[in-house]
Amino acid sequence: MKPQSGRKAFIVLSDGGDVHSKTSIGTAIEFAQRADTIIYAIDFAARPVFAHPAVMASAAMLRARGRKAMLRMAAETGGRYFEVSKRESIAQIYDEIEDEMRNQYSIAYKSDRADRSTGYRKISLTTGDGNLSARTRPGYYPR
Question: Considering the entire predicted model, what is its pTM?
Answer without folding.
Answer: 0.81
